[in-house]
Amino acid sequence: MGKRNRKKVYIGRVSLCVVCSILWLMCFFAVDVYAQEREEHCEEGGFSLTAIFSLQDGEAEEITLRAGRDFALALEVKAQEEFSGYVNVLMQNEEENHVLYQQRIETISPGESVSCQMLLPMNLMTAGLYLTLTDEAGEIKLEHTIPVEMVNYGMYEFVAVFDPEQEMPVENAYGHFSSYGNQLIGLSESEMERGAQALDALEVIVTQETVLVKLEESAVVEDTFSGQETEEMLQDAQAAESLKEWVASGKTLVVGASAEPGADEEMLNFGLQEKELLQEVILRVGNYEATRESVLATNEEIKKQYGEDARTYYMGDSMIGDTPVNSLSDKAVSLPIVRFGNGGHWWNSEVSYETLWQERGTDIVRCYHVGKGNVIVFAIPVTYTATGSYPLFYYRMAEMVFDNLTQTQLERQNADMYASDTGNGNYLLTYIRARSNGISVFPYVVILMVYIVLLIPAVFLLLRHFEKTKYLWGVLPLLSFAVMGIVYLVGGKTQITQPYCIYLEVTDYTDGAGKQYVNFSLSAPTNQGTEIMLKQGATVRLAQTAFRAYDPGWVVSYAPAENTLRSREYRAAVCALADGTRLNVDTIRAFAKTNFYAWADAPEREGRLLATVTSADKVVAGVIQNTTDIPFRQVYICNQGFVVRVGGMQPGESLLLEDCVQRVEDSNGWYWLLFENVENGNYAETNILNELFWDHVNDNPEMIYIFALPEQEGSEILGEAAQSPGSNGLSVFIWAAKDMR
């Protein structure tokens, strides 16, 4: 009987262990191992503030943000008493260029909470974020300081994996995409929902075709059954739209094939059987390892000389560890191939592609061009679980991706690494001068002559007639003050009493949904600072926001403790309100310029400038039609080979391009002054149009653009500030023309 009881106890214990193991595994797989959001929480006096940072390693000691890029900060405010006011984030930047970002909090009831999101730029040497909660009177209810550390000290890609159904950590299944020093992180669906600009730090997103199919299906259902969607469907639809906009802005999406179970496999080698290509891949891996060792040694010397807090060049992990590079496997890999179809996805519905790799006549890797971005699609799975180093096949897979980044990405990375300015176009403001009504000296000459020739002798003779000349030295000063008042009133029309802007606004409809971008300088006629209201939803940045990411000069001068102090002074304040965005500049001298950069969604318009273009034998032919309600004073059609100056166009007007002034070039090289307005003497406008032309054509040399200047100047983002006395600027509309070649 005892043995039977012991056996039952033993079986019970084993069963309990099995059940616990199953429950543990269920909990493990239920955890969202890909969420990279990190929370910072503080409480004080019945108030609580939670800050959620995206794209963060939850196990890291500090918050790391990529220099030169935007990051999303989600904020949640909870109060135990009725509250209304502002949640503030003061970015502690170098050289006291602190910028305050504010979000208006409407009245919340006791015990309730409210959430909001800020899109902030990590563009200066920011060492800390000072978070506060203030009431309507400006009294601080809660404060919290968050130190941050910068990354991006080196040329590398920030790669994210969006694969919610993947059971393994991203570094296990997708680790080969961190090759050559690139950083690999997981990307959750909640982070995707924050919008395309919130993913600005990312260069590459890797995902599976099945993941995108699920998002596309949700987007179709959301469009078809509006009002009947589940919360999950709405989240998927938002994530899909964010991803599309992110790619179109110039980023790279990598899509791996999802083969059916039991699919036939074929042996693939990505050309590694060719001696030259094999040696090239081995040399590239070896060069990275050697460079990495050299950079790490240099970093150690910098820390020894300037201290452990000195910012150093970023370098990724080793790709091969102790494995000799020449012993890496170059064997072919057996994988299932999913044949490419025509259409069916948003990235290949109406766009051309180029084949990056074929084997035995079958496309293995294709690159689709969407807007300014690329979608690189593999006909094979892109996941692989490795212990130690990877076979060269998977290093070659990652190499194909990193060798086919967009021109926009390469230029942005170079600006991040080497440039002292972000190149957002504020330098073009130097071509625009403040508008002045002009001063005519004739009224002042008349007033002066009347004062000297008539008033003074008349007063003197009048006083002598009444024998009151003793009052002459009292009457003359009063008369002088009266004349000064008359001069002041006459010159009132030339006085600048309101803040004014010099601006360049571009409204770009080339990707369908329009975006508005404005570079502007804000000036005030006093030393007391100023504020203006911008369009609702406008995002505003200081223009002087970049730095050299790796320059020995800042290693010496950088003092992190100074930047984490809770400074109350700031250069500019950006406050998001229900009726617009308020921009306030405090520390500004009278008539001094402070440069900003802002953008917002462009309003939907009925109609557009519509053109069909054919070019051959140095003649550009076609038709352009103005289907908008906007009169334009100058319209151009251009690409890398030609420019057509259409001239002015009224609403509803159509013109033949053969009848317009044209200039056609045989080569695709750099040639200057394609937009020639010298007969008008408007060299500033010519220079600005040339710069805008090259900014667009360099990214999309095959596209044809329409540049249009409206008759009535103004800025939709700046609103009334662009109409103030002294304000002046240039507005440009851009559309894509239809190429009939």
Word description of this protein:
- The protein is an alpha+beta fold and 741 residues long.
- Helices cover 26% and strands 31% of the residues.
- The chain contains 13 helices and 34 strands.
- The strands form six sheets. It has a nine-stranded mixed β-sheet, covered by helices on one side. An eight-stranded mixed β-sheet has the order 3-9-8-5-6-23-24-21, with no helix packed on it.
- The radius of gyration is 32 Å and the shape is globular.
- Residues 6-11, 13-35, 547-565 and 669-673 have low confidence and may be disordered.
Chain-wise SSE layout:
Elements: H1 2-30, E1 38-44, E2 47-53, E3 63-66, E4 69-79, E5 83-92, E6 99-108, E7 113-122, E8 128-135, E9 140-151, E10 158-162, H2 170-173, E11 183-186, H3 189-192, E12 204-208, H4 209-224, H5 231-248, E13 252-256, E14 265-268, H6 275-306, E15 333-336, E16 353-359, E17 362-370, E18 373-378, H7 392-402, H8 407-418, H9 442-465, H10 472-490, E19 500-508, E20 515-523, E21 530-534, E22 539-542, H11 552-557, H12 560-563, E23 572-577, E24 580-585, E25 594-601, E26 609-616, E27 619-626, E28 632-638, E29 642-649, E30 654-656, E31 661-664, H13 683-699, E32 705-710, E33 728-736, E34 738-739
Parallel strand pairs: 3-9, 6-23, 10-11, 10-12, 12-13, 13-18, 19-33, 26-34
Antiparallel strand pairs: 1-2, 2-4, 4-7, 5-6, 5-8, 8-9, 14-15, 16-17, 17-18, 19-20, 20-25, 21-24, 22-25, 23-24, 26-27, 27-30, 28-29, 28-32, 29-31, 32-33
Helix pairs in contact: 4-5, 9-10
